[in-house]
Amino acid sequence: MRIVVTGMGIVSPIGIGVDQFWTAAVNGVSGIRTITGFDPSSQRSQVAGEIPGFDPASFLTAKYIDQTDRFTQLALLAAKLALEDAGGLDTYAPQRVAISIGSGMGGFGTFESSATRKFRNQPIPPFTVPRTMANAAAAWIAIKHRFKGVNLTCSTACSSGANAIGMALDLLRTGRADAVIAGGAEGCVLPLTMTSFEVLHALTTGSNADPARASRPFAKGRDGFAMAEGAGMLILEREDQAQLRGAKMYACLAGYGQACDATHIVMPDMEGQITAMRTAVLDAGMNIDSIDHINAHATSTPLGDIVETRAIKNLFGTRAGDIAVNATKSMIGHSIGASAAMGSIATIMALHTGTIHPTINLDEADPECDLDYIPNRAQQRNPRNGLCNAFGFGGNNASIIFTTLE
Fold first, then answer.
1. Per DSSP, which regions of 26-155 are E strands?
2. By three-state DSSP, how is residue 380 classified?
3. Rounded to an integer, what distance in angstroms lies between the CA atom of residue 284 and that of residue 269?
4. Which of 72, 139, 213, 241 is in the most buried spot, having the most CB atoms within 10 Å?
5. Which position among 154, 158, 252, 388 bears the catalytic label?
6. How far is CA 100 from CA 164, 255, 273, 309, 358, in A?
7. Is the pLDDT of residue 406 over 90?
8. Is residue 264 annotated as part of the catalytic site, yes or no?
9. Distance in angstroms (rounded) separating the CA atoms of residues 146 and 69
10. Residues 6+ apart with CB under 8 A from 55
11. Which residue in the list 154, 188, 252, 297 is annotated as catalytic?
12. Closest to 297 in 3D by CA, of 317, 271, 268
């Protein structure tokens, strides 16, 4: 039994909708800009990947807007686009359509604003709790579309989206669902969130005057990641059922690996990353030597990119240099729990089109980052499979594998 991707929806700093996103990605367009959502002048990092022109009123009623945080609104739009792309799921009983969404921060925008109001002795909105809760996005997608199957939320920091997609694969394999909306959403370009990451020395602070070059995975002199927001959603079905309803199919979701390195709450660990990748390959029934593309976690932090490079080299050995590795975050920044969902869409599109988008801002690589990162220009490599990595705080490492349909 194969699990296939029949629809995709994305809301990203470089485009809303897969076509717009992919065109920008292939052309190496940066979505990192000076922050406009709040006054960033007091922040050390003043750039981020915000969604330009995002207007929830264009697809949601005033009631929905009042009761939802921005991360939920982003998720609702991405799910809407994915369902439209899949031609709808009306052939399935509502009780057999599941939802599996990842978010590292949940409704943190509501939390920040309501906390500020409380400290000022001002009334807080009545929907503060349901707006803030991490499962709000999954719940509202179900309510909006009347899907009554399993409804899950995964919060494993930066690997949330990957684990949510992996859980969707398990739901379909075990027969607990016939179709799953799976992905991730995050809306945390916010003062407190960014200040908190600044304290950890995780954010870029040296590119405020040149935002487009702020995110530079694997590059010499990189100084941290650019915060971002966004959402990515996949429609997943069994291949035989998708064929019955005449659905188009982009790729197969073939494998999933997860490992906690149990080493450090924020620092990456090579062994955990190796285990996640190896487990995903084995789960897909594949051979280590068959992997030809990796969409890297690659946040643009000085340590993280080196550790991931070492993990790839350790697992794939002498073949590591032949694998096409790229970094979607070089263009859209790091959207925490949504990052792997958007990275998955980039991976699927690489398989679907044969083109691997570039890692931009890679003029001179870090000497310790010496793989083929597809620098600055897209390449036609016709990959047969793609491994998407997501490594998060708490030692949560996840990898998912997509393959072509052939």
1. 33-34, 47-49, 97-102, 151-154
2. strand
3. 23
4. 72
5. 158
6. 5, 16, 23, 30, 29
7. no
8. no
9. 20
10. none
11. 297
12. 268
Could you check whether 3-244 and 255-403 share the same CATH topology? yes
Of 293, 334, 352, 357, which one is the catalytic site residue?
334
Largest CA distance in the chain: 62
**Amino acid identity, position 67:** Q
The domain ranges of the chain are 3-244, 255-403
Phi/psi region, residue 322 (left: phi>0; alpha: psi -120 to 50; beta: rest), is alpha
**Helix (H/G/I), strand (E/B), else coil: 47:** strand
Cβ atoms within 10 Å of 265's Cβ, excluding its own: 8
Pairwise CA distance, residues 373 & 321, whole Å = 9
CA distance 287 to 152: 31
Secondary structure class of 289 (helix, strand, coil): helix
127 contacts 66 by C-beta, under 8 angstroms: yes
pTM of the complete model beyond 0.90: yes
Topology of domain 3-244, CATH: Peroxisomal Thiolase; Chain A, domain 1 (3.40.47)
Tokens 């899950």 correspond to 152
Q: Which of 97, 44, 49, 92 is nearest to 74 (CA)?
A: 49
pLDDT tens, position by position, 121-168: 999 999 999 999 999 999 999 999 999 999 999 999 999 999 999 999
| Mean confidence (pLDDT) of the chain | 98
pLDDT tens-place string over residues 228-253: 999 999 999 999 999 999 999 999 99
Tokens of 279: 């487990």
What is the sign of the dihedral through the CA atoms of 110, 112, 114 and 117? negative
The rounded Cα 5 to chain-centroid distance in angstroms is 16
In a 10 Å sphere around its CB, with 0-12 CB exposed, 13-18 middle and 19+ buried, how is residue 175 labelled?
A: exposed
Answer yes or no: 334 catalytic. yes
Residue 394 main-chain phi, psi, to 5 deg: 90, 5
What superfamily would CATH give domain 255-403?
Answer: Thiolase/Chalcone synthase (3.40.47.10)
Helix (H) and strand (E) counts for the chain?
Answer: 13, 16
Residue 347: closest CA among 364, 323, 365, 363: 323
Task: Please determine, for residue 343, whether its predicted confidence score (pLDDT) is greater than 90.
Answer: yes
Cβ-proximal residues to 129 (8 Å cutoff; 6+ apart), any chain: none
| Distance between CA atoms of residues 140 and 110, nearest Å | 16
